[in-house]
Amino acid sequence: MIGSGGTVTVSPPATLAEKPCLAWTAEAAAELFALPFPELMFRAQSLHRQHFDPAEIEQASLLSIKTGGCPEDCGYCSQSARYDTGVAATKLMEVERVVAAARRAKEGGATRFCMGAAWRSPKDRDMDKVCAMIGGVRALGLETCVTLGMLTPHQVGRLREAGLDFYNHNIDTSREFYPEIITTRTMEDRLETLSLVRQGGIRVCSGGIVGMGETIADRIGMLVLLANLDPPPESVPINMWSEIRGTPVMDTGERVDPIDFVRLVALARILMPESVVRLSAGRHVMSAETQALCFLAGANSIFTGDMLLTTGNPQRQQDAELLAKLGMRAAVVPARPG
Ligand code: SAM
Ligand code: DTB
Ligand code: SF4
What we know:
Helix 2 (37-51) packs across helix 9 and helix 3 (95-107) runs parallel beside helix 4. The protein has helices at residues 26-33, 37-51, 95-107, 124-139, 153-161, 178-181, 187-199, 216-227, 258-271, 288-297, 316-326, and strands spanning 56-66, 112-117, 143-147, 166-168, 203-205, 208-210, 235-240, 276-279, 299-303, 329-330. 49% of the residues are buried. It has eleven helices and ten strands. The protein is of the alpha/beta class.
């Protein structure tokens, strides 16, 4: 259902409609984004409450199981071998160390454990270890997610057999802005992997990054593209770009306006009412007030723990205090679009 220009040709029945008949257009999404803030928040909250308990928040923990040395040229990333970012390349971690980290994450309150590898795509010989990690983490009673780059159908099958719950593969930005940021693989490549994962019966986690020099129309276009996947991803991470010295994106010097960021979260909630919207990278530089507004706008998942992959995250204690202050609680949040 995705059109060639990042928008779709079938309009919702009326402007500002909250339930499109077939697909969202960029124009309808932009109208929502531009609503008076109280109106936008009211619409987002109303939908959020239809599908989720507004006091519940999913807590995931992230581990880099293979860091740095990546051949891709993603202009935002600390782990590309093409940029001098100070991140040292490592080998794939041993299974026991990964399972031990997952155990600590569970003790710290996480209900999902996400494992990320700095690969363009995994080698078949890596899959044995990754599948053993998935099995070990599942055995602890945690939901599992991995992000390994592009996959073949055979690799999807192996992940499914290992019992993987979610595969994370971000579209990162709009179709139009994408070539400014990555040249070594295309948006079509990414959509192909997402389609293979979906066909393979694994739930999809896909979102993107804001703050890389893109326009607001690009941000909206990214959400429209995700919302028009059939079905939309069960999990939608919205990352605020975590500044990485030495990357091309660093030179854009952009800072995202916090209210624009909250508007985008609200738009994600309206376009994908049944998906879990994940307030992902960048929380360590966000005020408590901005995060609270994001939760009101419909974000219902965070990463907990002191680190993301290579960048920082708020301290666990700080997050616990914020949730307590807001009267919110950690939970396994069910997403339903699949
Ligand atoms: N190599 C795999 C891939 O690119 O699909 C998996 C790991 S990659 C680091 C996972 C995602 O992290 C990227 O798609 C991107 O959306 C996000 N990411 C990477 N660096 C980031 C940064 N500096 N700030 C925010 N998000 C970032
Ligand atoms: C996602 O969308 N955000 C997470 C997870 N998926 C893998 C990654 C954020 C990475 C932030 C930059 C870093 O720590 O290197
Ligand atoms: Fe490699 Fe993933 Fe970073 Fe791109 S985002 S450089 S594929 S680790």
